[in-house]
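Q: I'm building a small set of examples for a reading group on sequence design. Run inverse folding on the following structure and report the sequence directly after it, with nothing in between.
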C-alpha cells in the first residue's frame, strides 16, 4: 500500500495527523468501549476500531521522517533520541 503513495504529500500532513490521533487516543482513554476488560475501542455504529493500531503506523512514519530530518545531526545525539 505505501509503495504507491507520494511521501512528499504524506510529509505535509503527517504532523497534523499525529496531533489528531493523539486527540483520538485521549478520547478513547475516557470514552472508549470496554472489550475484554480494556477500554481501547471506539464504536462507530456497529463497527468497532482500535485507534492504537493506526497510531502505531503513524508513529513509524513520524519517526522515519524525523530521522530523515535529523540526518546531519551528531550520531550519538540521534541514537539517544531514537531510543526514546
Amino acid at each position: 500500500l505505501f509503495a504507491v503513495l507520494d511521501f512528499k504529500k504524506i510529509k505535509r500532513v503527517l504532523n497534523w495527523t499525529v496531533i489528531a490521533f493523539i486527540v483520538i487516543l485521549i478520547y478513547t482513554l475516557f470514552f472508549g468501549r470496554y472489550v475484554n476488560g480494556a477500554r481501547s475501542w471506539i464504536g462507530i455504529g456497529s463497527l468497532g476500531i482500535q485507534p492504537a493500531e493506526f497510531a502505531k503506523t503513524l508513529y513509524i512514519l513520524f519517526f522515519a521522517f524525523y530521522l530523515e530530518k535529523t540526518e546531519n545531526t551528531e550520531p550519538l545525539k540521534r541514537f539517544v533520541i531514537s531510543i526514546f
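The helical segments are 7-31, 51-69, 75-83.
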